[in-house]
Amino acid sequence: MTMQGEAPAGAGNPAPQQAPARRSIGAVLAAPVGLLAHLLDGPMRFWQRLAGRGGMIAFFLLPNMAVFALFVIVPLGINVAYSLSGGTQLFLPSRSFVGPENFARLLTCDNHLAPATCRDDLFWIAVWNTVRFVALQVVVLVAVAMTTALILNRSIRARGFWRAVFFFPVLLSPVVVGLIWKWIFQRQGLLNWLMVEMGLDPVNWLTDRTWAYVFSVGISVWAHAGFYALILLAGLQAIPRHIYEAAEMDRTSPARAFRRITLPLLWPNLLVVIVLALIRAVQVFDEVYVLTGGGPGTSTMYLTQYIYETGFASTLRNPGVAAAASLMMGGVLVVLTLAQIALTRWRDRQ
Questions:
Q1: 200 has a pLDDT exceeding 70
Q2: Which CATH class, in words, describes the domain spanning 128-178+204-302?
Q3: Are 320 and 82 in contact (CB under 8 A)?
Q4: What gap in Å lies between CA 204 and CA 202, rounded to an integer?
Q5: CA distances from 157 to 105, 153, 168 (A)
Q6: Are 292 and 312 in contact, with CB atoms under 8 Å apart?
Q7: Mean pLDDT in residue range 223-228
Q8: What distance in Å separates the CA atoms of residue 133 and residue 140, rounded to the nearest whole number?
Q9: Each residue of 138-156: pLDDT tens digit?
Q10: 217 CB contacts (<8 Å, ≥6 apart)?
Q11: Which segment of 3-7, 233-237, 334-338 scores lowest on mean pLDDT?
């Protein structure tokens, strides 16, 4: 007989029997790691005495720098070599050296605002399409992300659920995003089916230049706004609540509180969002290419698509011109990054 509250021996208490077995398994698994650490201890101590603190830092940075050089520096050097070569051959040894001819071809224009007067009119069509896209997409994207972040920062029901809903499109592949919306907007798509069911005539949405441009901007905003809203939401949650409480006690209007409190304190996050959105917009390709293929005509051909088609997809491909265009686009992205750094430092000084 056992006393009340006392468990019978061996019942419901397997820990004493399982603990030695678990310790044995852990010791077996940890033995190779311990042996490896013991073998490396002597050489690492010797290297530390020989190389010093700076040498150890370089030793641990070397693998990362090697990977960076292999996948960034080396391809960049190859791209520069391609930009200085001519011909349609894909392999670099088969190409001839032409110097800055590819850059001259891209930049030669009677009027850069009129692509038809340029030597490579398609390049400048893509440039001005990209400028138009960036100008609208970034403004709409930042506005949508800010509005979303302000709403999700409030005490609303199922706030966690709505945060997941707004962030979900970010998890989708850009190709998947393009296919989903193409199935909706194409001639035999879902939207036209609904219009026919309501007695309306179907519309060729993706063959109209205006609608194709609007949809390319809207779909890009839908796909990426959740990511930038998350950055802004983190900034909003970092603002001390007592500042808003003091403003409420002073009877400050919500609009004035947003202008005088939220925006100044949210500026670092907002600056990051603007620069990242600009860089992402300049590089737009995947979802728009799947959605419209650059059409109708060349109305939604953006710079990255021009580089891709000129270097790989076109029948008369020219890898040298594509490489030169990509270097010019990379220069724009570097300028945007340096502008972010300069603005951040200027704001910190202020």
A1: yes
A2: mainly alpha
A3: yes
A4: 7
A5: 58, 11, 18
A6: no
A7: 94
A8: 11
A9: 999 999 999 999 998 887 7
A10: 133, 136, 137, 140
A11: 3-7
- Rounded to the nearest integer, the mean pLDDT of the chain is 86
Q: In the numeric block, which tokens belong to residue 12?
A: 């419901």
Residue 118, φ and ψ in degrees, nearest 5: -95, 155
Listing DSSP states for 147-173 in one string gives HHHHHHTS--TTHHHHHHHHHHHHHS-
Cβ atoms of 169 and 226 closer than 8 Å:
yes
Structural element, H or E, at residue 22: helix 15-68
Whether the pLDDT of residue 36 is over 90: the answer is no
How far, rounded to the nearest angstrom, does the alpha carbon of residue 229 sit from its chain's CA centroid? 13
Count CA within 13 A, CB hemisphere, residue 114. Answer: 4
DSSP 8-state symbol, 97: E
Backbone phi, psi, residue 71, to 5° = -105, -5
Q: What is the 3-state secondary structure (H, E, C) of 298-338?
A: CCCCCHHHHHHHHHHHCCCCCHHHHHHHHHHHHHHHHHHHH
CB-count exposure of residue 166 (10 Å: 0-12, 13-18, 19+): buried
Full-model pTM? 0.81
**Cβ-based neighbour number of residue 316 at 10 Å:** 6
Q: Which residue's structure tokens are 């989708």?
A: 172
DSSP state letters, 112-147? TT-GGGBTTHHHHHHHHHHHHHHHHHHHHHHHHHHH
Instruction: Specify the residue for token string 């998350």.
Output: 230
- The SS3 call for residue 348 is helix
Write out pLDDT tens, residues 269-294: 998 899 899 999 999 999 999 999 99
221 membership: H or E segment, kind and range = helix 209-238
Q: Where are the domains of the chain?
A: 128-178+204-302
Peptide bond connecting 20 to the previous residue in cis, omega within 30 degrees of 0: no
